[in-house]
Protein 1
Amino acid sequence: MALDKEIKEQLKQYLQLLEGDVLIKVSAGSDSVSQDMLALLDELVGMSSRISVEKAELERTPSFSVNRPGEDTGIVFAGVPLGHEFTSLVLALLQVSGRAPKVDQQVIDDIKAIHGEYRFETFVSLSCHNCPDVVQALNVMSVLNPGISHTMIDGAAFKQEAESRDVMAVPSVFLNGEFFGGGRMSIEEIVAKLGGGPSASELSDKEPFDVLVVGGGPAGASAAIYAARKGLRTGIVAERFGGQVMDTVGIENFISVKYTEGPKLAASLEEHVKEYNVDIMKLQRAKSLAKKDWIEVELENDAVLRSKTVIISTGARWRNVGVPGEAEFKNKGVAYCPHCDGPLYAGKRVAVIGGGNSGIEAAIDLAGIASHVTVIEFASELKADAVLQDRLYSLPNTTVIKNAQTKEITGTDKVNGITYIDRESGSEHHVELEGVFVQIGLVPNTEWLGDTVERTRMGEIVIDNRGATNVPGVFAAGDCTNSPYKQIIISMGSGATASLGAFDYLIRN
């Protein structure tokens, strides 16, 4: 398996940045994955005199570990880290060689302060765009703390192990053999789960802000930058930076950027915000808002942040079907990201709930992997664009069921089928399958506001043309508002509008 010319050129440039020697210990067999892995390692050795390879007996075959000579760092790749994991390999080589990871000093201190033995394993698929974040975070932690080790496991290369451990969504992280967490996790989230991060009192003791932004997606980042550029004391509090953009794969309609990917854009947003004097408080979820002498935002950990103005930009999330079995089998056959989890259903039968563009795109995508795809649509017609419908109907392994109300997702320890009611006849039907992908649109993240701010019956915050809500000093922007179109570029514009609205409010009051 030869690397293509473009990847080789990139690799050569990266490997020139190695600061010290790297020893790769490899455990290979005669299987095809082992041969591909050895070919990749041969390429690496041929590109840099700083890299050497030796044979070893590792826990899994095929796998290899990335070490400093004379010291095991605990970073292991089981399988061939190409696709989305190629960057994880490059960064592991650089960081093991002595290059400092791009992580805030506070996080580095928190990682070094963790005591004990932490053996992490992450099951990934190479087409998963969420997995590298988790792999790279745990690799960094392994480099910084000798008590932490991490193995990336390609679920396709170690299919039996993945199935025996009931891995039905990626990334799936295990700690010391027990399930630790699933889905995208930042390094700060992992550290917080291990007991690190700021306390409630540290947050409550902060001086009041001029502008406090709640939410770290495109709208929140834009609002924070515009406020900071006005010289205002600005804070941004968010559960995760990037918001839903982190779950978006290809972005081709962000004007002036022909193509980018969600995680890349989210990283750029955070980098840009950090250029300014903005107090970033990550991993924090807002619980309530109250207007007193200051506008007070209470967080889930009971900390209270105070500000003269607040901009709410908490975005939206995938809408749940809300039927029995959905919550119980989440990540055990119920999934929301076809790009991430699709490869785990290779050769299996799946259903997609939802006949809009995202549902039909998911069905087309999955039809290339799964043995059969059933689309379940509540209405009498699909809502997707005609070109997508034509493509779907041209595929031999798809079935479309319209006028169908999902009643239940069935299973024992994992999904084994879906039950629906024919809305015309009232008859009940059951489809046997192994996976259900839910694609039925978005719901705004505004429940925490209660009745404090006017919202539509859909839960969207009602704003005027300056981004102002019905509460003086409280503004809102992006997908959590009644803006008619939910797009990244529109969210950014509304974040800037709300920020300028808040500035205008401050100078007049």
Protein 2
Amino acid sequence: MKTKIVIEISERWLKVVVEKKISVEPLINQDPATIIAALNSVLKQNRPGKDTEVCVVLSRNKITVRRVDLPSQDTKELEQMLGFYLIRQIPYHKEDICWSYQNLGFDGISNSHLILAVALKSVFHNVVSSFGPVNLFPESILMSSQGLVHYVSEALKDKSPVNASYMILDIDSNYSDLILVHKQKLASSVVIAQGFDQLKSEQEKERFTVELKQAIAALNNEVPEAKPEKIFLTGAASSLLVLIEGIVAMGPNLKAQYVSTKEYESFASSNLKGISLSAILGFNYHVAKEDIKFIVPELQIKKEIKVKVQQLIILGISLVFILVMLGVIGLTRLAQQQSYAALLKTKVQDQAKDSKELEEIINKLKVAKQYTASADSAASYLYELSQLCPSSIMITSFNWEWKKALSFRGYALQIPDILGFANTLSRSETFKGAQNRYTRRRKIKDKDVVDFEIVVK
């Protein structure tokens, strides 16, 4: 949730409300350095979060206010007409001012009633110069008079009914603001030069009396349908209640009533006297959508730059985070693969030890298979050879290799016996292709025999 901060910079005081907590710092002058130091002091005391909603209140004595009636209901036409009105009626160059307005409504006949507020751009210089260094960028710049309306509405809530029309007199340290409220909206406003500091003098009190009567009469003439019966006093007017009651009783015949809130009463108990906090408290309670808001291009640009920088920082942090996470994932995968490979290698080594005996058994089985297979075994060949070998042939040696050539040696008394035996073997299925490789005569115990060797391919 955003922390709401409302700030007003007057000639002598910096007034700040942070979530209903009031802080006031004295200002020696209006230099930005002085204002920055005061703002830093307030922020250190209150320590708002990073997510803030900042509203700046512009004092009424720095604003020119006019009630304007224009013959149109169209917003674009009204703004064009106000542009011409500014050129003709306001004694400043249009390039040197900031202006805003509030549409009070159509009278049902021909005119729209507007409140026009005009301030010199130089007035906003301190705001532009002072708020950037403390990292505060106002959401809006508001007029103090409308804050008084919100303040009185809050102070009278659940206490006493409020008529459709009434006046508010707010006394600050160096000026007073008299406003007329009609149909719960600011209908008009007049600045009176005397404030709390000036009203300590009897001569200034007399001037104040004259100016207050004139201001009340002017507001009544400006909005004749209003007909207020009460005037609510705010700010430093509590100590001047008797004086003001005497003034309004003699002339305008208004009933005066001082109104306050618990936040203001808590501040009033301190040693600081003669300071009005009504406007900033009013905006702290409520900011209406239709309230007059000044747009300062420099502040808008700085705010947009801040937002863009924050977005770039978030984007950069996000990219770095993603890259780090991808690197961590990659390193984790690599470590897992290396660990798995090492585990497999260990298992292979363990299995190699266990399988050594098995391999020896398999080799023995292979050798045994050579001699025991039904078709190609040595036993099978020997059996077939014994069936085909006649009694005239003596086999002396048998040479057999697995799935390779087969040969055997022996002797006979006559060569024809050998040739006949070779022919018999070649005609058999087992020894098909048998050939006599050689014959050779020799003697055995005074007998002549013929050696031979038969090969089966």
Protein 3
Amino acid sequence: MARSRASDTAKNTADSHTATAPTHQIWLAGLGAMAKAQEQGSKAIEALVNDGLAFQRKSQAQAQQRLQEATERLSHLASDFGQQTHVRIDRLEHLFEDRVGKALERLGIPTLYDLQALTERVAQLEAQLAKATTTPPKAVRTTVRTATQTAAKTSAKSAAKTPASRTARKV
């Protein structure tokens, strides 16, 4: 029996050794993988950091480009809107001016053009007056006498033609 026990113990030890061998190998493989990961981990992290920086730069460049495009579109829209607004304001101004001008005309208030025409006429009359005052006094007296005599003759002729003046003569 002692012999059989010894052979059983040897058999059990061999069985446990064969059973623990694969488990032990798996354990050692895991430790090896961990060691390799530590060695290559720093290299992998550096590669990932570099990839992340490149991606960030690319994303920022694209965002900057899209922002610039949006800004250009908005500036075009704003200038178009400004031009449309300017045209509409001009139309409103002309409409307002026309209506105010018509209202002033109905009230009999002279326009700017009327005032300019009067100013030009006054300037012409002043020039004629200045010219007349610079002529010799005899010529002015003669001109005044001639104008007065002509006016008197004209009014006498017109008075003679009216029926009331004929009856006045008869009396």
